[in-house]
Amino acid sequence: MALTRIILPLVWNVSKLEKNGSILGNSDTFACVSRVGSAMEMWWIAQDGSIKGRFWEEGFKFWAPSTQNDPNKQGDPYTLAPPGSAGTGNTGALGLTALSRDAYSMDVFWITPNGDVVGKGWNYDPFTKKGGWTTDHFVASKSAKGPIAAVSRHADNIEIVFVGTDLSIQACYWNKGRPWTDGAGPHLLADKKTVSQFSGIGITSRNRDSFDAFWHPMYGNDVSVFRWSQYANPQFKTFNLHADERPESQLPNGSKITVIVNNSSSMVWWISKGERVWNGIGDDYDWQVPHLPLIATVPKPNSSWTTVISHDSAIKAVYFSHGIWFCWIKTDGAVMGRIFKPTKNYVSEETYQIAPPGSAGRNQLFAISRKPNTIEMFWTGSDNSIWNAKCDVGVS
């Protein structure tokens, strides 16, 4: 007789990481990575355009750095880049992203007020046991509006995509020992004025020889996909994933996008104007676009309907040992999540409320899984504070 593994009820530990007014209250101003299962790093754009950061390791009572005189008290965050370094949206330029190429490296990228794409790289030598922010990245000049996304195909590579100032999609790459994009400047993935002004953006790498980029076209419920494969013929192609809805539910401005890789397939989620969550799943050969059974509207006893997710709500998906954790921010500011088990139809489990109504602003949400059984979530409060929720997922 086969035994069925049952996920125990999730218990969340919620805490406030940064005080009111700490982070710029727009979307795409927060990033977090986990180099190894016992550590996390996070960065955000502060209101003055500086880049702030903290780090955490197992055994820490709080996110470091600590105060200068007392290691048992949390101190101020460190400054990765001084005030005025990052765009704050006043000039139309805004975006922050980060990645870890391996256990010994991290790279953080942001868009400057004049549209440059720049960044910092952290490297650690396990033999000399020395490390630090030793690399300055200059990726592109006066090209970006944002948002921005990055991925690593392997430890010696970085791929970056961003929305350009002319509403195009542009891409840059780095290979160890060579200049960014081999000195040629950004590549055009989509022509100017073809991308929604408020489009989300995402990028995945299914293997060391490929990457997929995602964004919203100017109109419709579709998501555009740019697929590059080093050994394919042709090397790249662009196509749309279509959410089948009535015309009045078309998106005029796009929505947030979240992407992951699962078993060599790219997966992308987005929200239609009709408040439905759509999911595109694809590999080298085929794509499917199901409407996931996430409850977008909930009937009340009097038969009226109330919307619990909006097309501009923040969403995030992360793959962990028991399936896919999909989370979102409701229209009332509650933080919600649901597990989708990796079956053919991705059957949904129980919906969890991680934080009550009024807890979050609608435009920023982040999640990672640093170990197979862990989920870490981050969001921005309506007062521009930063919050964290963590959960160790148990089974019986």
Can you walk me through this structure?
- The protein has 396 residues and is mostly beta strands.
- The protein folds into two domains: 1-23 and 314-396, no CATH class; 24-300, Neuraminidase.
- Helices cover 0% and strands 47% of the residues.
- The protein is built from no helices and 30 strands.
- A four-stranded antiparallel sheet has the order 1-30-29-28, with no helix packed on it. The protein has a four-stranded antiparallel sheet with strand order 2-3-4-5, with no helix packed on it.
- The radius of gyration is 20 Å and the shape is globular.
Topology:
Elements: E1 13-18, E2 30-33, E3 39-45, E4 51-57, E5 78-81, E6 96-102, E7 105-111, E8 117-125, E9 130-140, E10 144-151, E11 157-164, E12 169-175, E13 187-190, E14 201-207, E15 210-215, E16 223-229, E17 236-241, E18 257-262, E19 265-271, E20 277-282, E21 287-288, E22 297-299, E23 305-307, E24 315-320, E25 323-329, E26 335-340, E27 348-355, E28 365-368, E29 374-380, E30 386-392
